[in-house]
Design a protein that fits this description.
The chain is mostly beta strands. It is built from three helices and eleven strands, in the order βββαβαβββββαββ. The chain has two domains: 90 residues, Roll (Chitinase A, domain 3); 49 residues, Thrombin, subunit H (Beta Barrel), CATH 2.40.10.330. Helix content is 11%, strand content 40%. The strands form three sheets. Strands 1, 2, 3, 4 and 9 form a five-stranded antiparallel sheet that branches.
């Protein structure tokens, strides 16, 4: 009998974020992610609610209005400048630049457009203003260990400074 997703179960899954209008994938995880169900995690509550009761092998699609997650687009967070004012390292579409406000609050901006004369950065979340579908595949469901429950997710082996790998026991 397969275990079903419920509180204190370790869940491993893969997902894609698909634009509802175009059907194009916007985001796909390269490696499975793991979390402890019922704990705070990076997944939206709408998604975790839909995962409740599912088991390994299940595939589901959850529609999400990203305006509810990230708010509406703020055009005041889009800036265009002359290319000569931008350091060479940042002159590539897709590059993330971290800037600070006058109050010292950091915000990530992504280079979204560039031509011979100008470069545009956008501080909005790339999913902001979109209607998307989270397509998830449940890969594994099992009882979470006490350590996983404590940290809310997978315990990842970390390399030591001398090159050996430490695995928490």
């Amino acid at each position: 009998m397969s275990e079903t997703i419920q509180d204190n179960k370790f869940v491993e899954l893969s997902y894609k974020v698909i634009d509802q209008k175009s059907g194009e994938p916007l985001v796909a995880v390269e490696f499975p992610i793991g979390y402890v169900h019922g704990m705070d995690c990076a997944l939206d509550q709408t998604v975790t609610t839909e995962l409740e009761g599912k088991k390994a092998g299940d595939v589901l699609e959850v529609p999400i209005d990203c305006n509810k997650l990230y708010g509406p687009r703020d055009e005041a967070l889009v800036f265009t400048d002359r290319i000569e004012n931008v350091p060479q390292d940042y002159r590539e579409v897709g590059t993330t630049i971290t800037m600070e406000s006058e109050k010292g609050v950091p915000r990530n901006f992504i280079v979204t457009r560039m031509d011979d004369k100008t470069l545009t950065v956008d501080g909005n979340n790339p999913l902001c203003g979109r209607l998307v579908i989270f397509k998830l595949e449940v890969l594994k469901v099992r009882d979470a260990t006490e350590e996983e429950i404590e940290v809310g997710g997978a315990i990842i082996a970390e390399p030591d400074v001398d090159g050996t790998i430490k695995v928490p026991i």
